[in-house]
Design brief:
The complex is a heterodimer of chains A (332) and B (272). Chain A has 332 residues and is α/β, with parallel strands linked by helices. Chain A contains ten helices and 13 strands. The radius of gyration of chain A is 24 Å and the shape is elongated. With 272 residues, chain B is mainly α. The relative contact order of chain B is 0.15. The chains are: A alpha/beta (332), B mainly alpha (272).
Chain lengths: 332, 272
């Protein structure tokens, strides 16, 4: 039975082992109604395996998935109100788009057949609906995958890298489409390794690395938790470095190109600027450099010795917890 | 069962798009026609001789479908049955469409039963088509005449026609078992070619075991032997023993194969 108060997705302690390989190693995440939730990770991190378990395609070794409070492994009825695809959406190439959708609508029931025309309109494939899918481009198949999801009138969509393999225009169109779906009130879980796509579309994010969630929460909070890196140029950078080292709340100072960089709390910067002037190091530039999701992603998913260091003493930096383990990251 | 009926209808619709559907049906039509052509040519260029069954064919065209059933057990009908049964799950797995349909609103058992029924329907249609073409082509060649039974008695043409069709129905018993074996291989190999060839190979190996010295005692229990059960209908009086044995021996093969395929299909991870 569906629990009306249950979140669209609730995953607890999810584990999937293939022999000695632990593809998913204890994932916990919660997607709330109305979220556009980014599921980020390098290739091989466990995103797609997690999604397969969420859609009931594979059974977890341990842990649980609940979609609106229902277990998708126990019964396909848990997928009521849920749609999406894992990896590329696949169709029968010898049948037309419309025929494929009619087949899927017949399997769905619940008035899905009556939504085919509207879904094809939404993904702008109405004029190609009688063409065989075998002749479709990759982008058209991706859009048909969205149409196949829409005929289920979903409240939750799980999309696995929907823009992968698309040309720039196709990627832009796909982002617009996902934005429109989210604006219409559909909760979206968007698995992706395209950081700008997640940053542009999502309000919350989970970052997975080697089968474990290394961060879950709002993107804005993630950025705030990373602290701010400041860029400093003065009339005497050697002197400025000494002054920075003596100031409380200022992280390790690095020389990057022709300027200095350090992590710091905002409250520590004003006393620093006064101290610099007093010491005779005239300030040419002192500007905050806001961390991008890409910076944070790499800091969380790459080994510490490969990541761009975000310097700073404990307390001054306040970086996201837990930090990535010093293990080799998968290919991005 | 409404879900099974929906899958059944759409699986049939999909079959209409596939070339292998027509390849199997084409073979089912071609083989009896080839037999008739061979008989016709023999009439023009030879006088007497030839294989023993040719005498039957000369006397009545109704012998043609029975000859086809006899020789078709070697590879034709097992291959036709395997063409769809071996492909129907594996192709979806290979093409990635299995995960598409498994994330809709039908349970896995409904999809499996729908697919299994379609595979058996195809084998039935191909067998009945082959027999019907044999009846028509044979009657055109040698006439719609009374048939000599295997006991030497003469059976009237209408009764012989009825026996031909009942023989085909009996023939469907081991074919159902072959379909189940094909479904099992299709489900566990996830490879159409391996499943189709594997099903045919198992059928041929069964025939081989039956003729190997020292293994003769296994013959009554081999699936290949059950393809001869229909011959009991052409004896006077009708010998039902081989038919009864065909039912339970084929049922054992079918239940074990279908049960294993069902469990694997319902429980397995779909990661492709």
């Amino acid at each position: 039975m569906s629990d009306p108060g249950a979140p669209p997705i609730e995953v607890r302690g999810l584990v999937k082992r293939y022999g000695s390989l632990e593809a998913v190693a204890g994932v916990d995440l919660t997607v709330q109604a109305g979220d556009v939730y980014g599921y980020l990770g390098p290739n091989g991190a466990g995103k797609t395996t997690s999604l397969r378990m969420m859609l009931g395609l594979i059974a977890p070794t341990a842990g649980s998935v609940r979609l609106f409070g229902r277990d998708p492994v126990a019964s396909v009825h848990a997928l009521k109100g849920v749609a999406g695809f894992v990896e590329a959406p696949m169709f029968y190439p010898y049948m037309s788009a419309e025929e494929n959708l009619r087949l899927l609508a017949a399997y769905d029931g619940d008035g899905a057949a009556g939504r085919i025309a509207e879904a094809l309109d939404t993904v702008e494939l109405a004029d190609r609906r009688r063409d065989k899918v075998g002749g479709y481009s990759h982008g058209m198949r991706q859009r048909l995958g969205i149409a196949a999801a829409l005929i289920r009138a979903p409240r939750l969509m799980l999309l696995d890298e929907p823009a992968t393999g698309l040309d720039p225009a196709g990627m832009r169109d796909m982002r617009r489409l996902v934005r429109r779906l989210a604006d219409s009130g559909i909760t979206v879980l968007l698995s992706s390794h395209l950081l700008y796509e997640v940053e542009e579309l999502c309000n919350r994010v989970a970052i997975i690395r080697r089968g474990r969630i290394v961060h879950e929460g709002e993107i804005a909070a993630l950025k705030r938790s990373a602290g701010t890196v400041y860029r400093l140029r003065t009339s005497d950078d050697a002197l400025a470095r000494v002054v920075c080292g003596e100031q409380p709340g200022i992280g390790t100072v690095r020389v990057v190109g022709g300027h200095l960089e350090f992590a710091a709390d905002e409250l520590a910067v004003a006393p620093l600027s006064a101290a610099l002037v007093q010491a005779g190091a005239l300030i040419h530039e002192l500007t905050p450099q806001t961390a991008t999701l890409e910076d944070l992603f790499f800091s969380l998913t790459e080994p510490e010795d490969e990541a761009e260091p975000v310097a700073g003493p404990p307390g001054a930096h306040g970086g996201p917890e837990p930090l990535a383990e010093p293990e080799p990251a998968g290919e991005l | 069962m409404r879900g099974v009926a929906i899958v059944y209808r759409w699986e049939l619709a999909k079959l209409r798009h596939l070339k292998r559907t027509y390849l199997g049906l084409g073979m089912a039509v071609l083989v009896p026609v080839l037999f008739v052509i061979a008989v016709h040519i023999r009439h023009q260029h030879e006088h007497g001789g030839g294989p023993p069954f040719t005498d039957y064919v000369d006397r009545s065209g109704l012998a043609i479908p029975l000859i086809v059933l006899l020789f078709g057990a070697i590879w034709l009908f097992p291959l036709i049955a395997a063409l769809v049964a071996g492909d129907i799950v594996a192709a979806e797995d290979h093409d990635g469409t299995l995960k598409t349909v498994l994330t809709r609103s039908l349970e896995r058992w409904q999809l499996f039963l729908g697919k299994g029924l379609v595979a058996f329907t195809y084998a039935c249609v191909a067998t009945l088509l082959c027999g019907t073409v044999g009846v028509i082509a044979g009657s055109l060649q040698s006439g719609f005449h009374p048939l000599q039974s295997l006991s030497g008695t003469i059976v009237s043409a209408p009764r012989a026609l009825m026996l031909v069709y009942v023989s085909m129905l009996v023939y469907l018993i081991p074919i159902a078992a072959i379909v189940c074996i094909g479904l099992l291989l299709s489900t566990i190999t996830r490879n159409s070619a391996a499943a189709v060839v594997g099903t045919l190979m198992l059928s041929i190996i069964s025939q081989l075991i039956g003729i190997l010295p020292g293994l003769g005692s296994t013959q009554p229990y081999l699936i290949s032997t059950q393809f001869n059960a229909w011959q009991g209908l052409l004896r006077t009086p009708i010998d039902t023993d081989p038919i009864v044995r065909a039912v339970w021996v084929s049922a054992i093969y079918a239940v074990i194969s279908l049960g294993a395929a069902f469990i694997v299909f319902v429980r397995r991870d779909v990661a492709g």
